[in-house]
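#struct-pred

JT: dropping the chains for the assembly here, can someone run the whole complex?
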Amino acid sequence: MSTALAARQRWLYRAITAERATAKPGRQLGGTAVPPEIGVAVYRHAYRARLREALADDFTAVARVLGEDAFDRLVDAFIRVHPPQDATLNAYGRLFAPWLSRSRIARRVPLTELARLEWALVEALHAPLAPTLSGADLAGVAPHAWGSVRLRPSPSLRVLPCRYGVSATYEAVRRDQPRPTLTRRAGGIAIIRQAEGLRRIELDSLETRVLLALVGGATLGSALAKISAARLPLIRDAFTRWVAQGFFTALA
Amino acid sequence: MKTTSKPRLGLPDLGIGVGLRTQHYREILDGAPRVGFFEIISDNYMESSGRPLEFLDRIAERHPIVMHGVSLSIGSTAPLDRTYVKNLKKLRDRVHARWVSDHLCWTGIAGRNTHDLLPMPYTTDALRHVCERIRRVQDVLEAPLIIENPSTYVGFAASTMTEWEFIAAMCDRTGCGLLLDVNNIFVSARNHGFAPDDYLAAVPWERVVQFHVAGHSDEGTHIVDTHDGPVIDPVWDILAKAWPRARGASVLLEWDAKIPAFAEVEREALRARDILPHIHSNRQRVRAGGAA
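RK: done, full complex below.
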């Protein structure tokens, strides 16, 4: 590897990504009709614009709730902490919600849940479709064996516990309604990719707890252990819906 | 890598194509596109097992595909990402892509990535470095890599040769193919102060597999390669001079920002027929003509 080439690349990388345009291009650059300062500025602008655009694509609702300028400032702060490392930008947003949860802005506005929802949708979109658990599979389970049954979740299934009604916020953005607000709503959201597209299904607190346990590998017996007899039928109905919606691919 | 003296390295003439963009999936599948092929951004499909890949599979069943990447970083002094190259090959084989291209550039160093196509210094050691990496990529792909000339906004004071001299030497030493972006020639000519004809005079035409045309933004002091509008006449003029010399290289329109409906993108691409009377646009001709 050429050390001279490496040094030039390090110099230009720093000139492009530094927060302030302080690099003096005089010795490194030249021979162009465009002044080197302008040329470097084109790359500096493109670097930030591309990352802002990538994150705005993945976090459309967060961007809408915040407004363009505030979102850009937020992204700039994210870039400072997490400059891109992967070969592609496809997964750049995966650290955005965890970073947001620790940022100052997340303490004022419950945006983290909205960001988590949007990233879960991205992940589900890129997950493969899989065969779904059938009624016949379940019919084959002996009555005494139900308690020890584990279920293999669909590769696209994501379950998010929530304190705010972020699904409604997301829907408002999709429908281009006026600036949406975030309201409290304890429960959760299940996201699943079906052949027809992505589905968001709102869950109540109990459904969220049971589904998270099942997705985490718990047996049906332990997932349902502390549920009162009065609420068991509700969960049974929910379970029937989850199977029909393709949440599970097989008995584990 | 074995070299060949056949035009386009023996690769097929696919006619006129457009870049495949997600906004157009449905229109392409539901309609009857008049263009001969689609170019995908390889990186958009390499880490997905989901819906984008399913659309691509369906489109690839009906239309020829070529792959165009932005993250190979062939000029970087960071280690070559062999996993990335293997994934390129896997995707190529999956969709039967006719060839794989990327840019003469670097995108990052030392575990950091700008996701931009950054310029190379045109020096002998940079040439040696790029050629060595192209050979390694070609060994994995078991096929020629097709390299695109970049649009650039700065030049290195250390450069000892012109971009076209660098590219000609690169093609000669590695047997790689050339994706000649005539919009990039126009953009860089303005930004660097050279004449497009000087560039064209040095192109190794037997290596040219494909052309790109695109729109750009004129900022007064400089031009930015934005791919956000129609192709201007001076860029078509460069293509008109270049295309006959490449003996049937495919022509592709890139439109990546402010993307209009598919019909408008297709109409703009098919303007190539007005400029190049002998070019074909439909896939029937591709099938009939094969790799001739």
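JT: nice. Strands of chain A lie at 151-153, 158-164, 184-194, 197-203, 248-251. The mean pLDDT of chain A is 92.
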